[in-house]
Amino acid sequence: MKHSLLTAATVACAMTTGGLSLNAYAADEYKLGLVTFLSGAASGPFGIPAKNAADLVIDAINDGTLPAPIKGNGIDGRMITPVYLDEAGGATKQTAEFRNLVERDGVDAVVGYISSGDCLAIPSVAEELKTLTVLFDCGTPRVFEEADYKYVFRTTATASMDNIAAARYVHENLSDLQTIAGINQNYSWGHDSWRDFTETLKVLRGGDIEITTEQFPKLFAGQYGAEISALQVNSADVIHTSFWGGDTDAFVLQAAARGLLADNEVIFTAGETALNSLGEHLPDGAIIGARGPFGPFAPESELNTWFQNEFTERFGTPPTFPAYHMAQALIGLKLAHDQAGVGASTDEVISSFEGLEFYGPGGKVEMSRGKGHQAATEMVYGRLTRVDGEITFTDITRYPADCVNPPDGTETLKWIQSGMPGAECN
Amino acid sequence: MKQLLAILVDGSVYASWLFIISAGLTLIYGVMRILNMSHGSFYALGAYSGASMVGWYFSTGSVPWLSFVVLIGAALAAGVTVGLLVERGLLRFMYGRDEVVMILVTYAVLLIMEDAIKLIWGVEPYFAYQPYTMLGRTKFMGLTFANYDFMLIGVSILIGLALWYGLNRTRNGKLLRVIIHDREIAGALGINVSKIFTITFVIGAGIGALAGALTAPGLSVVPGMGIEVIVLAFAVVVIGGLGSISGALVGALIVGMARATAVHLYPEVELFVIYAVMGLVLAFRPQGLFAVANARKI
Q: End-to-end distance of chain A based on CA atoms, in angstroms?
């Protein structure tokens, strides 16, 4: 009896101290769910650079080595413990995995999502589970145009910005512009991009624009021979494409081999990811965008210099825009916590995140749309050129955030079609 | 006229690519009655092997033209070796099982190979564009075509001729056709069915890997590329008739021409047209255009 009592006491003690130490450990860490493509066609050009950026920035946040004015170690005084999750598998799988992250892994917040489909599916679950969630890369404007969310933020501007700026750029830089053609992926990203580009051009040119052909090949089709012929047959003054990742690579390789890029003006709204791998195939004069002021278009700052140097040294390649997007999301989350103060409740963090203005490696980010939950940034385009064989850019135009992002509470398409009232471009 | 030329050339190039992808798939089904889901992985394996070896080859500064030999040789070596391992190490223990079971088994092989590819090559894209650009381009009637694409048409014709000759003019080919007609009788006649199965699977895997290698120079080789093509390959062999080489050829031509026509004339239906053709064919000939309907053995 005495022996069993002693055993029970020992077990109880062990459980108590074990529980205490577990709680003490839990209090020291900030568990962060990180969702990005770790497999599939989007992993190489998007998911892995984003994960690399997360590794780099999280280490720097934990070590307190991010350049000033970002201060302190960790988030909320706690060291970040990342919990990585593969985004592959579609929206249904991701909503289930999000629940697992919150309910099984007990994460404090989630940063993630490249696919627009996932970004449309996750917010309702995040609201239900009351989990602070930062969408870091997806571009669909529908997330905050169709609903209001309390727990969901997006620190990247929408894709509408890319295409409104693209239309402004070709309108201002191609004096004889009369005809346009497009090749975009056959899903919401491609269709929305083409729609915003053409509608903006119609407004800017008073309807005086002719579409020669609009091609929508399947996502990850890989073979664009027929589309390239169609673009040659239906020649236009400028070809617009919002292709990304491996599709950009395949299109560049095949179009360059057939002379399409040398014979035509082409604007790549998300072409920056192809610069490191296939820059030699892009002809001088190609118009390149980076989904914001990122990569070669990032403004000079101590933070950007640190990010570019550290990323290149650690991973052997310069950071592309998905890496910048991830860095921006993590820095935004940290600053929202810092502003709310150590030990702040989730509601207090949300309050400080709403309308936050901060500087990431790509410059100023204003959480000024979607009732303070959606970021707006400037957008940049430039023409590729070579100096001593090195790729650089000329004719760079920077469009302020208020020039290419619709005002808060306004639907993008309605804003464009009504003549973009209130756009401040100077 | 310009548009018609574009449709014919684009349709032929796309059909050639489809035929090379689907020839191995339909050969394996015709002989072994295995709908090989892992075919897409052999395609990816060929692309990765070819691209990485071509990248290495050019880094040595060797003669550029030999890169074609390196590209094809690397893919065939990888495809044949892994094909042999899969057939001898796994599939031979499953023969005689239901076709649905074989689909599940080869699907498992696909998943394993996809992960193995990621373990070996990582997730960074690989490029082997030198062979694509090296051959130059041809201008004709205001259109510019890559000569590499014309070479693809030539290779697909060679593969088609080789398969036709092998099946119809060689002793092993005739033995193989006996197995296609009736596996049990072939065994009873003393034909080594197991050996023929091994040879068939290895050839099918090799053609799949070759297809990947020939595709690699025109795109970035990335994880998941094999899964993207398997659906297209199935559409082609289903239209032509599962197990029929000539059916795969006609299926590829139909799909290639239909897609090129849609891209040029009705781009909004490009995605739909391939599966519309498949649905139409299956509505009137459920066994496909060239497959012979067999009486079911009880």
A: 86
Query: B73 or B268, which is more confident?
Result: B73
For residue range A303-349, list pLDDT tens digits in order. Answer: 999 999 999 999 999 999 999 999 999 999 999 999 998 889 999 99
CA distance linking residue A375 with residue A368, whole number of Å: 6
Question: Can you list the pairs that A102-105 forms with residues at least 24 positions away whose Cβ atoms lie under 8 Å?
Answer: A102/A33, A102/A129, A102/A131, A103/A129, A105/A31, A105/A33
CATH code for A160-290+378-417?
A: 3.40.50.2300
- Confidence label for A17 from pLDDT (cuts 50, 70 and 90): very low
Q: What is the DSSP letter of A72?
A: S
pTM of the predicted model as reported, rounded to 2 decimal places:
0.88
Name the maximum alpha-carbon separation found in chain B: 63
Contact state of B224 with A220 under an 8 Å Cβ cutoff: yes
Interface check for B90 against chain A (CB to CB < 8 A): the answer is no
Nearest to A288 by CA among A297, A300, A280, A299: A297
Instruction: State in words which class domain A11-157+299-376 has.
Output: alpha beta
Q: Which of residues 261 through 280 in chain B touch A, CB cutoff 8 A?
A: 263-264, 267-268, 270-271
Q: Measured between CB atoms, does A217 come within 8 Å of chain B?
A: yes
Report domain extents, chain A. 11-157+299-376, 160-290+378-417
ipTM of the complex: 0.89
Distance CA B95, CA B9 (A): 42
Angle separating helix axes B2-32 and B147-169, nearest 10 degrees: 30
Asked if A230 is an interface residue toward chain B (Cβ–Cβ < 8 A), one would say yes
Digit-coded pLDDT (tens) for A60-90: 999 999 998 888 889 988 999 999 999 988 8
| Count of all residues that appear for chain B in the document | 298
Answer whether B41 touches A (CB < 8 Å). no
The residue in chain B having the minimum alpha-carbon distance to the alpha carbon of residue A256 is B133
A160-290+378-417 shares the fold of A11-157+299-376: yes
Give B292's pLDDT tier (boundaries 50, 70, 90): low
Which tokens go with A174? Answer: 């191609």
Contact B83, B42 (CB under 8 A): yes
Mean pLDDT of chain A: 91
CA angle A322, A186, A261 (to 5 degrees): 70
Q: Does B98 touch chain A (CB under 8 A)?
A: no
Closest residue in chain B to residue A245, using alpha carbons only: B220
The enclosing H or E element of A239 equals: strand A238-241
Ordered alpha helix ranges (H), B33-92: 39-59, 67-89
Contact B222 A45 (CB under 8 A): yes
CA of A240 vs chain B CAs: smallest distance (Å): 16
Q: Is B148 on the interface with A (CB under 8 A)?
A: yes
> Do A41 and B225 make contact, defined as CB atoms within 8 angstroms?
yes
pLDDT on residue A343: 87
* CB B250, CB B141: distance < 8 Å: no
Determine the Cα–Cα distance for residues A416 and B195; give it in Å rounded to an integer: 67
Structure tokens at B43: 């395609």
